[in-house]
Amino acid sequence: MKTIGFLVNPIAGMGGRVGLKGTDKVLDKAIKLGAKPIAQNRAGETLRVLQGLLHSTSQQVDVNWLTCSGEMGANALKGSDFEEFSVVYEYSGETSEDDTKNAVRNFLRNGVELILFCGGDGTARDICTLTEQDTPILGIPSGVKMYSGVFGNTPIRTAEIIYGYLNGSLTLSEADVLDLDEEEFRRGNWKVKLYKTALTPYERTYTQSAKLLIEGHTDAQAKDDIAHYVAQLIEENSDALFFLGPGSTVKAIADRLYLDKTLLGIDALIDGKIIAEDLNEDQILKILEKYPNSRLVLSPIGAQGFVIGRGNLQLSPKVIRKIGIKNIWIVATPEKLSRTALLKCDIGDQALNEEFTKEGYIVVIVGDNRRRMVKAST
After folding, report:
1. What is the CA 131 to chain-centroid distance, rounded?
2. Residues spanned by the domain of 310
3. Is residue 117 located within the same domain as residue 251?
4. Residues 6+ apart with CB under 8 A from 14
5. CATH number of the domain residue 89 falls in
6. pTM score, two decimals?
7. Which end of the chain is more exposed for a tag (fewer CB within 10 A), N or C?
8. Contact assessment for residue 17 and residue 35, using Cβ atoms and an 8 Å cutoff
9. Are 12 and 116 contained in the same domain?
10. 173 and 283 assigned to the same domain
């Protein structure tokens, strides 16, 4: 029997769809903008899949669950039909990083062998400050930014990793725990810091890689070639609305059009003009009501390969359905793709995830009138 500590950061990811690029220190603002909790659903999805896996095998696999009260863990376990668990930490009021750390301390006192958490990089950082490399951790992705290598690719894949850990088929590996400075992020500055190295159950295709920031002369030239080509396509489709996603590759396209685009936000462009900047989910949907003929230009996160679901939670299932999978243009330099094994999406809707990757490959613009078929996975 394995002893697993399970905790949920109830507010993780709430800032994403309202365009705040995180929830640290801006929870009240996120709520005023209409942000809704997402962590419970993400945690519940993982636990339900794990429950199914445990019941589908003749091999006896028992879990001694340690958790927190209410929305920090117990509710998700109950809702997934895990009836046997021990609440070792009670919280009250709005949760904070202190609650996360206090819960982890109680897990460690009770002999936990793995900590499963639902949150983002900030939650991972808070946990590993106490676990160091003595206790493995595994994250259910629910934050706005998840650059650390301790997360499963999706809630379903995270369940499969846990199951592999429980039945002894997966080994532990070292992974970097990174975090982005959210205040700098909101100013348009990308500052990622390495905090710790943690142990995590590892499966190459199910566990995400820590983000690589890739630059170089040849990479810069490739960005310029991509920008030249996509800018031409945009000019040829001047009657269409274009949403330009985050990242330097997409920003290079706007630069080529002599437009001032935010580096880390989603901006709207039509007829050669930026009509709205740094949009949240509701703002995108309102613009789509006026301009239904739309395209979305995105670039994957280096090494991880996520096109949707990391750093762009404004692109909700509702938004993606309005735009249409076929109207998404993916751009990436060959150098980035050389370090990115698979393109992935975690839209928050399994049917959309599967539609996005159903052919097994995705067409990526890699230069001036150059495309490459890149392997894709949900």
Report:
1. 23
2. 217-377
3. no
4. 23, 27, 30, 31, 35, 36, 37, 38
5. 3.40.50
6. 0.70
7. N
8. yes
9. yes
10. no
